[in-house]
Amino acid sequence: MAEGAAVNEKGLITLNLAEETMIYFSKGYQSCTNIGLRTDDANHIAYNLDLPDFLMKYKPVVLDNGLQLVYGFPGIIATGGMNSNFAVTTNSLPNLTMNLNGLPLPFMIRKLLMFSDQDEALLFLENTPLGAPQNIMIAGRKGIQDIERSANQHVRYEPPHNEQVVYHTNHPLVNTDFNLLADTSFQTCERFSYLDQVFKKTSSEDSLLNRSILLQSITNRESGIRYEGNYFSFLASYPTNPKLPPIIELLLPKSDTTTALLQFR
């Protein structure tokens, strides 16, 4: 793999342990945002992947083997992605406890995407130790699940004010497995507050809760969701009708321009 990616083996290990390294040595960083939306005809997920500066020099790539679309950069196994039944996104939760014997995050993402059944992926996630404390959102044909995962807790988060939409940034909302060295006063951020305002405002008007509001939210610059370091974003929709294919839209890095829609062969 190192030879194919034109990096040395130590460099390859560093890339695939980037999340764990950042959390262990610097108590994490402010990074990703994800939003899930349940509607009558489809489940939607919008995601911004924001990496630390030292990884920004690598050009993002999409690995497509016909069964999964995996997002990453040369040398890394996965930073997110989707298959024909569900998508997987993650957010760093740096003030929770790490599991030094857990599976590195890129390997967990890649493994989850190998399951064709969403429930089987969730079961694997629950039963397999994960190294870096994370919020993991899995959205697909069977619904949307948002899990806050640390060394000692596996807790599902459901938003209190609107059952249709769930969103997350980089602070735990229900998991209390705090790192003893972490700053537990960090319980909110500008991006999360912005999403709170958006979805509380629209919660009484169901007509506004559609795919377009996710695209507007994930590209908002004033809140910091969309900023100059943004690595990539995507918006995926999974129809509840199994005969209909998912709709996947990529946003070009550092811009609000969308690429052509991708579909599974």
Strand element count: 12
Contiguous helical run count: 7
What structural class do you assign from the helix and strand content?
alpha+beta
Neighbour order of strands in the largest sheet:
3-4-5-6-7-8-9
Which value, in Å, is the CA radius of gyration? 17 Å
In the predicted model, the low-confidence regions spanning at least 5 consecutive residues are: none
In terms of DSSP E residues, the strand content is 25-35%
Largest sheet: 7 strands, antiparallel
**Mean pLDDT, all residues:** 86
Helix content: 10-25%
What does this structure look like?
This protein has helices at 2-5, 9-16, 18-26, 105-114, 118-127, 190-202, 211-218, and strands spanning 33-38, 42-49, 61-64, 68-72, 80-83, 86-92, 134-140, 143-149, 154-156, 165-168, 232-239, 247-251. With 265 residues, the protein is α+β, with helices and mostly antiparallel strands. The strands form 2 sheets. A 7-stranded antiparallel β-sheet has the order 3-4-5-6-7-8-9, with helices on one face. It has a 5-stranded antiparallel β-sheet with strand order 10-1-2-11-12, covered by helices on one side. A hairpin with a 4-residue loop joins strand 8 and strand 9 (154-156). Helix 4 (105-114) runs antiparallel to helix 5 (118-127). The longest helix is centred in the C-terminal third of the chain and has 13 residues, at 190-202.
